[in-house]
Specification:
Immunoglobulin-like; 34 strands; 469 residues; Cadherin-like_sf; four-stranded mixed beta sheet; 4% helix; single chain; four-stranded antiparallel beta sheet; cadherin binding
C-alpha cells in the first residue's frame, strides 16, 4: 500500500509540473457535488492532458432525476459545440449516459454495490462533424460507494449445541457466524458485533468472535435440560442506527453421573413357597437414578443377612433392577423367614463428582417362607422282608411306617399298588402299615416279590409317596 501511494503521488505531481509549464490542451473529468456524489483519485496522463481516473457514486440512490456522476471536458472545447463526447464500456448507454455536448455523465439506473461494485468505462472527445478523435481514449473507473443497506444474516441458523451439565463457568459451547453483504473495507457497514437477546444469565457471547460460553457454573440437567438462546448480530460496530439480524441457538445439557441411586423403598417384603424350584425369581428391587444412560446403571449385591447362602441377586441391565433368586432349597419347618440387606451401586463413577457421593444405596429385604403340603415320608427309603414259603395266611410278614413332615401332621393311610401285586398275594393295614400274607407262597415258583406301598395323607389325598418293597 505505501508503494502504491508513493506511485500515485509521483504520477500526480510530475504531470502537474509539466502542465504548469506547457499548458497544453487537455481533457479532464470533473467530479460533481450533487446528491452526495463522491470522486477521488489521481490524474492520468493522456497526450499531455489529464483526466481523473476514478469516480464514486452512492449505491441505491433514487431521486426524481438521474444522478450526475461527473463531467468530461477538454481544453480543446471552446464551447462552440464543435466537440462531441463519447462514452463506452461497462454499462455505457444502459446504466451510464453521457451528454455528448456538455460531457455530463449521469447514472440512469439505481446501482447496487452488492450486484456490481465498479464499472470500467472509456471517455473520448471527437470532432462533432468528422468524428475524428481529438484526444486519445481515456479509461476510468466508477466505483459504487457502499451504504449500509444489508442486514447481517446467519446463514447456518438455527443452531444446536450441547454442553455437559455441571460445567465450570466459561466453558465453550459453540460459535456462530453472521455475514453482511455490505463492503467490509469501507466504513463499518459490515463490522458486526454479537450480543445475546435471550438466554442470560446462563450463557454469554464474545462480541467479536461470537463464541458462546456458559455464564453460570454447575447448571443441572435434572433441573433443566434445554435452553433457548436468541443471538443478535448488529452492523455499524453495534452502534445506534446499525442493522441487525437474529438467530436461535438451542443448547442441550448432556448428562454426567452427578446423582447416586436411591431405592424406591427402604423395606421390601416377599414370600416364597418352601418347595419352589431353584433359580426361581422371588422378587425384584429397584434403585432409581436421576441420571440417564450408562450414568444410571447400577449393580446389585447382597451384602448382609441370614440368607446370604440361600439367595442371590442379579442385575437386570434392561430394567435396571435387581432380581432375587433362590439358590438352595428352603424348609419351612427349619426356618420360616429370612432378612437380607441389598445394595445398589453405580457402575460408572465420575471422579469429578465423587464429593457428591457415595454413589450407592441400601435396602432391607424380608422373605417369608410359606409352608408347602409335602408328601408323607417313609421312615426308611427301602424295605427288605423275608418270609417262609410255608407262612400261614394272614400272618404279619412286615410293617412300614411314614409321617407327614408338615406342621399339621396329617394322619397317614397305607395301600398297595395292585399293578405291582396282580395276584393279590399281600394285604396291608391302612392304619398301621402292617403287611400280611393273603395267599400261600411257593418259593419254587417265585423267589422274589416286588410290590409298591403308597402312603397318603388323609387331609390331602393327592399328597402321597410310593415305596418299593
Amino acid at each position: 500500500m505505501p508503494e502504491r501511494l508513493a506511485e500515485m503521488l509521483l504520477d500526480l505531481w510530475t504531470p502537474l509540473i509539466i502542465l504548469w509549464i506547457t499548458l497544453p490542451p487537455c481533457i479532464y473529468m470533473a467530479p460533481m457535488n450533487q446528491s452526495q456524489v463522491l470522486m477521488s483519485g489521481s490524474p492520468l496522463e493522456l497526450n499531455r492532458g489529464w483526466v481523473w481516473n476514478q469516480m464514486f457514486v452512492l449505491e441505491e440512490f433514487s431521486g426524481p432525476e438521474p444522478i450526475l456522476v461527473g463531467r468530461l471536458h477538454t481544453d480543446l472545447d471552446p464551447g462552440s459545440k464543435k466537440i462531441k463526447y463519447i462514452l463506452s464500456g461497462d454499462g455505457a448507454g444502459t446504466i451510464f449516459q453521457i451528454n455528448d455536448i456538455t460531457g455530463d455523465i449521469h447514472a440512469i439506473k439505481r446501482l447496487d454495490r452488492e450486484e456490481k461494485a465498479e464499472y470500467t468505462l472509456t471517455a473520448q472527445a471527437v470532432d462533432w462533424e468528422t468524428n475524428k478523435p481529438l484526444e486519445p481514449p481515456s479509461e476510468f473507473i466508477i466505483k459504487v460507494q457502499d451504504i449500509n443497506d444489508n442486514a447481517p444474516e446467519f446463514l447456518n441458523g438455527p443452531y444446536h449445541a450441547t454442553v455437559p451439565e455441571m460445567s465450570i463457568l466459561g466453558t465453550s459451547v459453540t460459535n456462530v457466524t453472521a455475514t453482511d453483504a455490505d463492503d467490509p473495507v469501507y466504513g463499518n457497514s459490515a463490522k458486526l458485533v454479537y450480543s445475546i437477546l435471550e438466554g442470560q444469565p446462563y450463557f454469554s457471547i464474545e462480541p467479536e468472535t461470537a463464541i458462546i460460553k456458559t455464564a453460570l457454573p454447575n447448571m443441572d440437567r435434572e433441573a433443566k435440560e434445554e435452553y433457548l438462546v436468541v443471538i443478535q448480530a448488529k452492523d455499524m460496530g453495534g452502534h445506534s442506527g446499525g442493522l441487525s439480524g437474529t438467530t436461535t441457538l438451542t443448547v442441550t445439557l448432556t448428562d454426567v453421573n452427578d446423582n447416586p441411586p436411591k431405592f424406591a423403598q427402604s423395606l421390601y417384603h416377599f414370600s416364597v413357597p418352601e418347595d419352589v424350584v431353584l433359580g426361581t425369581a422371588i422378587g425384584r428391587v429397584k434403585a432409581n437414578d436421576q441420571d440417564i444412560g450408562e450414568n444410571a446403571q447400577s449393580s446389585y449385591d447382597i451384602i448382609d443377612g441370614d440368607g446370604t447362602a440361600l439367595f442371590e441377586i442379579t442385575s437386570d441391565a434392561q430394567a435396571q433392577d435387581g432380581i432375587i433368586r433362590l439358590r438352595k432349597p428352603l424348609d419351612f419347618e427349619t426356618k420360616k423367614s429370612y432378612t437380607l440387606k441389598v445394595e445398589a451401586a453405580n457402575v460408572h463413577i465420575d471422579p469429578r463428582f465423587s464429593g457428591r457421593g457415595p454413589f450407592k444405596d441400601t435396602a432391607t429385604v424380608k422373605i417369608v417362607v410359606e409352608d408347602a403340603d409335602e408328601p408323607p415320608v417313609f421312615s426308611s427309603p427301602t424295605y427288605l422282608l423275608e418270609v417262609h414259603e410255608n407262612a400261614a395266611l394272614n400272618s404279619v410278614i412286615g410293617q412300614v411306617t411314614a409321617r407327614d413332615p408338615d406342621i399339621t401332621s396329617s394322619p397317614i393311610r397305607f395301600s398297595i399298588d395292585r399293578h405291582t401285586d396282580l395276584e393279590r398275594q399281600f394285604n396291608i393295614n391302612a392304619d398301621d402299615g402292617k403287611i400280611t400274607l393273603a395267599t400261600p407262597l411257593d418259593r419254587e415258583l417265585s423267589v422274589w416279590h416286588n410290590i409298591t406301598i403308597i402312603a397318603t395323607e388323609i387331609s390331602n389325598l393327592h399328597s402321597n409317596r410310593r415305596l418299593k418293597l
